[in-house]
């Protein structure tokens, strides 16, 4: 049996009625020819700007939406033909406060979903206790959810998503609105689950989170696959470079010559100083600083900003937008 | 996930959910009895002066006895409470779209029809138990019960429970995919009273209304219950009604299964399950 989630040539069109109740129907394409692989035991990132098709993709994987064409297989099971078997293997956690019953307690919510997933009766109590401990809600287990804070409710939603001990976990902006310590705890939980063999697909607008967790990232725009690789590979592939800024209080023609030689831009700063800015794939800060000193300049500040995944995503999506803007 | 054991677990889960969401407050328990009893009293005191008068009694002998008239109306009120509680539960189920939990039900591997049946049954039991106890006590107290055999009480319970649960599953399946379901409250409240003979005997209704009434399981359910409890009709006499009730229940369950299949496929195609 093939393990992991395989997405092949996935397409999803939503029927849209343009004008009124009886207007003509058109199709809005949300996902267009997508290929993905989500292996067990790895956290795979799915990134893109708003409207890129991330949530639609996740919902197709969760069997909540049906593909217009293409296939999604979970451990060899088709999400359409074998939907029920797929649902036992997966779960979905989305950000926000919804998705739990507010008049039930935290423990009752988990018990309710344990029944729906037919969790073995002998395991229910232990699993609920373990999950409540995992998300730090043991002390609030028997309090109605309507008295929970936003963060507590979201943590309960996370526990709910783990109630069936899923082989694959689909996380759609799971840390949305969470305080930093809780988001950090969630990241630890996700990393631990992956280490124990759970396959995770993660979408998040917090790219530092993706960079920290994901060993492999897919970037999509307008429902189409743009690039894939590790965060470092994506940064390299898109030419996203570290930025070096050297502040020189006594600019001179010799400094200008150094800047020209390195390809740095010169920007006037306060008190007649000048900032040399250079984006470069290599570690160029040392040679640049040495050249400035050799040319008789002094340095009052030296900043190095590493390339970010955000830069890579923006570069990729900008490239696509530019390509599409060129008339055929 | 098929089989009786997982289904029973879903029934238990839905019962807890319904209890916490809808029936857990003391005021709700109070209203479950007071409101139907008020309705019953209103109907009784409106009908009694007319129904016990000699011309009416000639057409409807039961009405000549105030206790039997009250028993007739009490059975109507009870059966109506059973069926209308399922309209309410279907309406409440549609609220789960807004709270975001509806999607979770469809994310789970739980059988869809089982979920709808469990939801209806959970609401039914919790909504009607108090009134059932009250009605049973009142009928026994008045001494108006006239039953052919003790086991006919079992037939009465089945004639009330099975079609009501099928009706609930059908309504749930109809409304779970609908965003605009408030209209059902209007459509199914007064008309259900009227066409099913809750307050009046069927023969007093116009022929066209009687025909419409046959499509509602409450009508046949009431005929069977009243026949068994008030007129000591044996099983053989009730067989045609019970057969029709069984067929209607089967039809409602089949329609529910079809609606769920078509509705889920449509929502998977359009993505409308989460639109609010």
Automatic annotation (TrEMBL), chain A:
<keyword id="KW-0547">Nucleotide-binding</keyword>
<comment type="similarity">
    <text>Belongs to the ABC transporter superfamily.</text>
</comment>
<protein>
    <submittedName>
        <fullName>ABC transporter</fullName>
    </submittedName>
</protein>
<dbReference type="GO" id="GO:0016887">
    <property type="term" value="F:ATP hydrolysis activity"/>
</dbReference>
<dbReference type="InterPro" id="IPR027417">
    <property type="entry name" value="P-loop_NTPase"/>
</dbReference>
<keyword id="KW-0813">Transport</keyword>
<dbReference type="GO" id="GO:0005886">
    <property type="term" value="C:plasma membrane"/>
</dbReference>
<dbReference type="InterPro" id="IPR050763">
    <property type="entry name" value="ABC_transporter_ATP-binding"/>
</dbReference>
<dbReference type="GO" id="GO:0046677">
    <property type="term" value="P:response to antibiotic"/>
</dbReference>
<dbReference type="InterPro" id="IPR003439">
    <property type="entry name" value="ABC_transporter-like_ATP-bd"/>
</dbReference>
<feature type="domain" description="ABC transporter">
    <location>
        <begin position="5"/>
        <end position="247"/>
    </location>
</feature>
<dbReference type="InterPro" id="IPR003593">
    <property type="entry name" value="AAA+_ATPase"/>
</dbReference>
<dbReference type="GO" id="GO:0005524">
    <property type="term" value="F:ATP binding"/>
</dbReference>
<keyword id="KW-0046">Antibiotic resistance</keyword>
<dbReference type="Pfam" id="PF00005">
    <property type="entry name" value="ABC_tran"/>
</dbReference>
<keyword id="KW-0067">ATP-binding</keyword>
TrEMBL record, chain B:
<feature type="transmembrane region" description="Helical">
    <location>
        <begin position="67"/>
        <end position="87"/>
    </location>
</feature>
<dbReference type="GO" id="GO:0043190">
    <property type="term" value="C:ATP-binding cassette (ABC) transporter complex"/>
</dbReference>
<dbReference type="InterPro" id="IPR047817">
    <property type="entry name" value="ABC2_TM_bact-type"/>
</dbReference>
<dbReference type="GO" id="GO:0140359">
    <property type="term" value="F:ABC-type transporter activity"/>
</dbReference>
<feature type="transmembrane region" description="Helical">
    <location>
        <begin position="241"/>
        <end position="262"/>
    </location>
</feature>
<keyword id="KW-0812">Transmembrane</keyword>
<feature type="domain" description="ABC transmembrane type-2">
    <location>
        <begin position="27"/>
        <end position="263"/>
    </location>
</feature>
<keyword id="KW-0472">Membrane</keyword>
<feature type="transmembrane region" description="Helical">
    <location>
        <begin position="27"/>
        <end position="47"/>
    </location>
</feature>
<feature type="transmembrane region" description="Helical">
    <location>
        <begin position="207"/>
        <end position="229"/>
    </location>
</feature>
<feature type="transmembrane region" description="Helical">
    <location>
        <begin position="124"/>
        <end position="143"/>
    </location>
</feature>
<feature type="transmembrane region" description="Helical">
    <location>
        <begin position="150"/>
        <end position="170"/>
    </location>
</feature>
<dbReference type="InterPro" id="IPR000412">
    <property type="entry name" value="ABC_2_transport"/>
</dbReference>
<protein>
    <submittedName>
        <fullName>Multidrug ABC transporter permease</fullName>
    </submittedName>
</protein>
<keyword id="KW-1133">Transmembrane helix</keyword>
<dbReference type="InterPro" id="IPR051784">
    <property type="entry name" value="Nod_factor_ABC_transporter"/>
</dbReference>
């Amino acid at each position: 049996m093939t393990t992991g989630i395989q997405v092949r040539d996935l397409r999803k069109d939503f029927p849209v009625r343009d004008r009124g109740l009886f207007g003509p129907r058109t199709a809005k394409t949300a996902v267009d020819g997508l290929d993905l692989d989500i292996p067990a035991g790895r956290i795979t990132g799915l990134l893109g700007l708003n409207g890129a098709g991330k949530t639609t993709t996740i919902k197709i994987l969760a069997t909540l939406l049906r593909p217009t064409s293409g296939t999604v297989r979970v451990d060899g099971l088709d999400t359409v033909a074998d939907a029920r078997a797929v649902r036992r293997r997966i779960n979905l956690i989305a950000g926000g406060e919804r998705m739990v019953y507010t008049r039930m307690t935290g423990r009752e919510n988990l018990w309710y979903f344990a029944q729906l997933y037919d969790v073995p009766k002998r395991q229910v109590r232990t699993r609920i206790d373990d999950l409540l401990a995992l998300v730090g809600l043991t002390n609030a287990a028997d309090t109605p959810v309507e008295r929970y804070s936003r963060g507590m409710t979201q943590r309960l939603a996370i526990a709910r998503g783990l109630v069936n001990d899923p082989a694959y976990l689909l996380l759609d902006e799971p840390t949305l609105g969470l305080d930093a310590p809780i988001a950090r705890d969630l990241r630890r939980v996700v990393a631990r689950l992956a280490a124990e063999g759970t396959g995770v697909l993660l979408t998040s607008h917090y790219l530092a989170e993706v960079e920290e967790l994901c060993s492999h990232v897919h970037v999509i725009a307008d429902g189409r696959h743009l690039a894939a690789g590790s965060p470092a590979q994506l940064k390299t592939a898109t030419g996203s470079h570290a930025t070096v800024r050297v502040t020189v209080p006594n600019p001179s023609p010799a400094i200008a010559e150094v800047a020209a030689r390195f390809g740095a831009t010169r920007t006037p700063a306060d008190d007649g100083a000048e900032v040399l800015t250079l984006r470069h794939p290599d570690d160029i800060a040392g040679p640049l600083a040495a050249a400035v000193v050799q040319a008789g300049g002094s340095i009052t500040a030296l900043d190095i900003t590493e390339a970010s995944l955000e830069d890579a995503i923006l570069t990729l999506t900008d490239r696509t937008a530019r390509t599409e803007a060129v008339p055929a | 996930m098929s089989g009786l054991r997982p289904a029973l677990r879903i029934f238990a889960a839905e019962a807890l959910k319904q209890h916490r969401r809808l029936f857990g407050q003391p005021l709700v328990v109070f209203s479950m009895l007071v409101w139907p009893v008020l309705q019953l009293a209103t109907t009784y005191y409106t009908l009694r002066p007319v129904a016990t008068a000699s011309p009416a009694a000639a057409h409807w002998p039961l009405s000549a006895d105030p206790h039997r008239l009250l028993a007739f109306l009490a059975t109507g009120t009870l059966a109506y409470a059973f069926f209308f509680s399922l309209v309410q539960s279907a309406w409440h189920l549609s609220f789960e779209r807004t709270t975001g939990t509806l999607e979770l039900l469809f994310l789970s591997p739980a059988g869809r029809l089982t979920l709808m049946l469990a939801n209806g049954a959970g609401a039914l039991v919790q909504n009607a138990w108090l009134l059932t106890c009250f009605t049973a006590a009142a009928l026994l107290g008045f001494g108006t019960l006239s039953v052919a055999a003790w086991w006919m009480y079992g037939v009465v319970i089945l004639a009330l429970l099975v079609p009501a649960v099928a009706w609930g599953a059908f309504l749930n399946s109809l409304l779970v995919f609908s965003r605009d379901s408030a209209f059902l409250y209007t459509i199914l409240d007064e008309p259900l009273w009227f066409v099913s003979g809750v307050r009046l005997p069927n023969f007093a209704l116009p022929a066209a209304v009687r025909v419409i009434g046959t499509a509602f399981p409450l009508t046949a359910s009431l005929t069977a219950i009243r026949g068994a409890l008030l007129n000591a009709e044996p099983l053989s006499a009730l067989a045609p009604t019970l057969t029709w009730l069984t067929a209607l229940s089967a039809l409602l369950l089949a329609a529910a299964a079809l609606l769920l299949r078509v509705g889920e496929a449509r929502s998977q195609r359009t993505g409308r399950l989460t639109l609010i």
